[in-house]
Amino acid sequence: MPSRRDPADLADQAAFIGALTAPRVPVEGLHNGRGRPAADRFAVYRNNVAHSLVEALGTTFAATKATLGEDQFRALALTHVREEPPSSPVLFTYGATLPNRLADPVLRDLALLEHARVQAFHAADAEPAGMEALSAVAPEELPALTLCPHPAAKLIPMEPAAIARFQAHVGAAEAPDATACLISRPRFDVLVTPLDAPTATMTAGLFDGAPLGEAAAVDGLDLGAALAALFNAGAIKALG
Q1: Neighbours of 197 (CB within 10 A)
Q2: What is the mean pLDDT of each run of 10 residues along the chain (240 residues)?
Q3: What secondary structure does DSSP assign to 184-209, as a single string?
Q4: What is the DSSP letter of 123?
Q5: How far is residue 99's CA from residue 113's CA, in Å, rounded to a whole number?
Q6: Between the N and C ends of the chain, which has fewer C-beta atoms within 10 Å?
Q7: Which residue, 231, 239, 123, is CA-closest to 182?
Q8: In this structure, are strands 236-239 and 154-157 parallel, antiparallel, or unpaired?
């Protein structure tokens, strides 16, 4: 039978946790092993916690950090840590709302893309379907075909300038016609595939469960190239 904790202990614990991300907020009753006041030790620990969280955010948002610069990103990340500390010990999910702090839409989209990449890396594993799976489908059945996305696949509509900044950061070729990025992780590596507007519109429809005939009814769509982009990225798990 689980033990009941003293409400006073829970209150002390809440105060301790809250003070970790609140600079210069004292915590009463802290002592070291010899019964001496430990406020100085707590201050060091608090700084270490903040530093670790800022570093974690810097790893997730590497391109955003490079664009903003070290000092400006650190100020942004430190504000985020203090105002929105982690609610889970699983740190790869941390930072989902940090992009909302960026007023520049290009930087905000860049940060959204970076966070989505980390989530894709930790998404469930699944064997992606190959393009050859389409050859087993009778032509008259193709319009009603549904394409189930891979668990790691996500479509991120983006400002073209944000896509350009990300491509430059990772050393990839420019994609001047792209208006969205497809995030995928078919096996071990996360892929970012820029998509033009017609392909992005079709992909959004497919990911929402629309049949191929409906999703592909987009002006200017090169259906063969669009499907090749999805399957080559490993973004499709199964046909239905």
Answers
A1: 16
A2: 46 58 62 58 71 94 96 96 87 94 97 97 95 91 96 97 96 95 95 98 98 97 97 96
A3: E-SSSS-EEEEEEHHHHHHHHHHHTT
A4: S
A5: 9
A6: N
A7: 231
A8: unpaired
pLDDT for the residue 24: 62
| Angstrom distances, CA of residue 178 to CA of 66, 158, 201 | 22, 8, 12
Q: Tens of pLDDT along 6-55?
A: 444 434 555 566 666 666 665 665 656 565 655 566 666 667 778 889 99
DSSP alpha helices (H): ranges in 94-191? 105-121, 160-170
Q: How far is CA 58 from the centre of its chain?
A: 13
Q: Is 109 left (phi over 0), alpha (psi -120 to 50) or beta?
A: alpha
At 222 the three-state DSSP class reads coil
Integer Cα distance of 108 and 156 in angstroms? 12
3-state secondary structure of 28: coil
